[in-house]
Amino acid sequence: MKVSFNQKIIRRHRVHESYVDFDSNAKARKRLTSAAYVLYMYMLIQENSMFPLSRKDVLDSTQLSNKTYDRAVTELISTGYLTESNEVLPEHPNNKVYDLHERR
Q1: What is the pLDDT averaged over residues 31-37?
Q2: What pTM was estimated for this model as a whole?
């Protein structure tokens, strides 16, 4: 996995590893702002369960603005969908690991 210095690493936890859980998705859609929901879904449907979060890729794929992206990340953290892990990956010691919870 190619990761830039200080880039967030996301570790995704889905209810069902092979597909998005409908009930969890519906609850997230109701709880989150549209921008946070877009970012949540972007991370949830990534092919790998662990991946670097690229602001550029998110902005290019979703057309969120820089400020909206920042607010969406903050909202996902404050609502508990995205939590900072204490884990340090030996191959990426300068990168924080965040867990994305699909949540029920």
Answers
A1: 97
A2: 0.89
